[in-house]
Amino acid sequence: MPAGEARRSRIGRKITLMDKVMNQHGLLNNTRRQFLSQCVTGMGALAMASLCDGVAVNRADTHHPARAKRMIYLHMAGGPSQLDLFDHKPVLSQRHGELCPAEFFDGKRFAFIKSRPKLLGTPFRFGRYGGSGASLSEHAPHLRRVVDDLCFVKSMHTDQFNHAPAQLFMQTGSAILGRPSLGAWLSYGLGSESRELPAFVVLVSGQRGPSGGTALWGNGFLPSVHQGVRLRSQGDPVLFLANPAGIGGAERRMALDSLRTLNEIRLRQTGQPEIATRIAQYELAYRMQRSVPDLMAVDREPEHIHKLYGTEPGKKSYANNCLLARRLIERGARFVQLYHWGWDSHGSSAGENLRYSFVERCRQTDRATTALLVDLKQRGLLEDTLVVWGGEFGRTPMAEVFTGKYIGRDHHQHAFTMWMAGGGIKPGVTYGATDPLGYGVSEDPVHVHDLQATILHLMGLDHEALTYRFQGRDFRLTDVHGRVVSEILG
After folding, report:
1. Is the pLDDT of residue 34 over 70?
2. Which of 118, 338, 445, 480 is the most buried (most CB within 10 A)?
């Protein structure tokens, strides 16, 4: 018999034997999902084991040793002006009121500027503080206290210049809806440290939420267990978490047990992991009914803590959210994201005026942000907690509005400042620089994807290895870009 026919014969005998085995167990009539779900190590069994046993999933097998165990991200929605906070430009002030250089305008795209604008020097005083000599505006008086714990990155740049796309790009790595957020990737890669709380929690303050909406903390194509859970500092902390009127704890437990039984039957039939996610979310919500009231009881904090943060229990505020962020990470939350709206300083109205609204946003956030860093440090948490502060982009060195009453700046994608602290970051340094007028990066550019790669690295994850297969390709937070900014690592 020729070698090829002999090989086909052996394969045929193996297939026939496998058919007999599968027929004995009725497996030939199963779909692929059903087959996997009935295997001891199948998708259904794995999902049930990891999500439904009531034990926190804390994955220790990171790509490399983590410098940070948890993260707090302070997103200033609207794009705070780096030129009026951190990046002092004396030359810009000297040339205040001049038409901007032609190369700043010709062939460039802006959100609102339509004709060649004038340069706008900062109306605020600057000074240098701490042993690092960091430059700070007069409207960051509290931050001076911790300036030597910060690493300023003054060479950030992004691909987007409108709010929603830029926020999506910063938080999901893509300006298009549907991608997983940074917090979802961290939850997927690292799991949770707590049985009682979600791995990823979101807190929002200001008159409204960020322009990018809930997609900024969405799970995208990752299992929905990884999406962010929004907590509210006023009213019910989590909508629909409390039992309906007339339903007690025993009745709720009985209903959940019945639902779990039905969902487990369906999970065994289909092997659909999202059903296991649904079971896990029901169980987490039940446990949160006990854990969240204690978490939200900020009024139990000692008086000196309230004085430190400037908190007013029961009110919706950025200060309350900063204190909640600390309480969350103490209880095992992996990633806490704060959004504070209102940094859009176009100058078109009193509500967007650098002289008023910008100053008010600084007043609302400076004390509480500083307090959070001080509190983390005094509790020994800052060492392995990464804190990131920044917006989705910066502001132009040119005036969008330039009148005696109002002044403001347009969105600026080419250069802005963010800062990082704790969790493996080198303290008391400034990385990168912009040109004398603050228009473009002149030293050590850091792209948004670079920032994302660096965050993942500090959390023990390789941004090129943290992938999820979807629609035939492997996706990652940084897409096909990004580098770890090793120069700012401690």
Report:
1. no
2. 338
